[in-house]
Design goal:
Blueprint (H helix, E strand, L loop, with lengths): L9 E7 L4 E7 L4 E5 L6 H9 L6 E6 L2 E6 L37 E2 L7 E4 L11 H11 L4 H14 L15 H14 L4 E5 L10 H11 L5 E4 L3 H7 L2 E6 L2 E7 H6 L4 H6 L3 E9 L9 E6 L5 E9 L8 E3 L5 E3 L4 E2 L4 E6 L4 E4 L9 E12 L2 E6 L3 E4 L1 H6 L7 E6 L5 E4 L2
Parallel strand pairs: 3-9, 3-10, 7-8, 8-9, 14-17
Antiparallel strand pairs: 1-2, 1-4, 4-5, 5-6, 10-11, 12-13, 12-18, 13-14, 15-16, 18-24, 19-23, 20-21, 20-23, 21-22
Helix pairs in contact: 2-3, 2-4, 3-4
Amino acid sequence: MPGAHPPPALELTATVAERDFTASLSIAPGETVAVLGPNGAGKSTLLGLLAGLVRPTSGRAVLGADVLFDLPPAAPADGAEHTQDARLPAAGNRVSRGHSAPGAVGRRTWTPPHERGVTLLAQEALLFPHLTVRQNVEFGPRSRGASRAAARAAGERWLAEVDALSLAERRPAQLSGGQAQRIALARALASEPRLLLLDEPMAALDVHVRPALRRMLRDVLADRTAVIVTHDVLDALVLADRVIVIADGRIRADGPTRAVLERPTDPFTAELASLNLVTGTAVASRAAGREDAVVDAVELSDGRRLPVAARAAGPADAVTDAVELPDGRRLPVAPTALPPGARVGVAIPPAALRIVTDAKPAAPGQVDAIIRDLEPRGDLVRVRTDLLFVDLAPAVVADLDLLPDARIRLHYDPAAAVAYPLP
């Protein structure tokens, strides 16, 4: 139909009861989605569901026109609660595609991992040690029935894509960590997956190797439907069109990468993005309703006020902070106005903060705080207070004699404090 939009490449809704995991997401064709979250949040569970290594208690997933699984909730027997192991089912319990299982409500469909067109690239390269690099990359096409010539052509193509043709005749034991990971990626792509899953592909690499692999990934992931789990916000910014934040088995944030990471709505996302997140109530400097009214401060629950970048005040029903795309998704945008009294978040980069040492009364952009702890972070020390954190050189921390429970005064430029409505 003219003007119709193609369906999303992936639709998933699933619950894994024993892991207290529930998620619903949609991924468009050619979209790369980064998944962020703390350890144990459910990131690996999500990848396992897509790859077929974890079986949900109930749910449905569709990739293109193919059903990966469709498992309606099972009917409890004699009023007892029904539980199901989230691991891949044993042979005696496996539900084949298109067949119903005893006790199931409706048709239960399960596509085994090798028939999904989904490839999972793990943290470790896991190359076949007895095969050469070329043979490793050709393995995928050959296992799908490709001729020797076709598999050879695919191997040549993907080794060239990852800049590794010169390594073709080596064995895995002769490769560095970065080289092995590039070969693993070439092997994954040579199987022509419809969905590529990457589980922290750079976690096992040295820091100096990661930038080159990140650039290479950016090139090969272009226009490819992919999900990448990472703890590194730089990976998300460089590689992903969209970010999903998972915590406690639930999706907490979902949106365009920069919108999610530059305007966080929860403490974990703010920590990932290395931003201070403060929540409060928008305050107008002039009476609401006047044309020249502006919101230029946020009042905290304890009565303190933080100056923020000035924004025109406007009624709640006139503020636009998202636009709806033709496919129904909502794209967050920076609102042009803020309603006084609205609940807002304020994002302040730690680099915008400094410690004031004079004893003069607090001026605009200054706030009194109490140090809670000091945390080494590489070459810097993160000084956390009851309100904001600031990153300082160790010498500065020593010179200022900063200790827990000490009272300090922080200063920042209000223009660096961005306020935005919270959902």
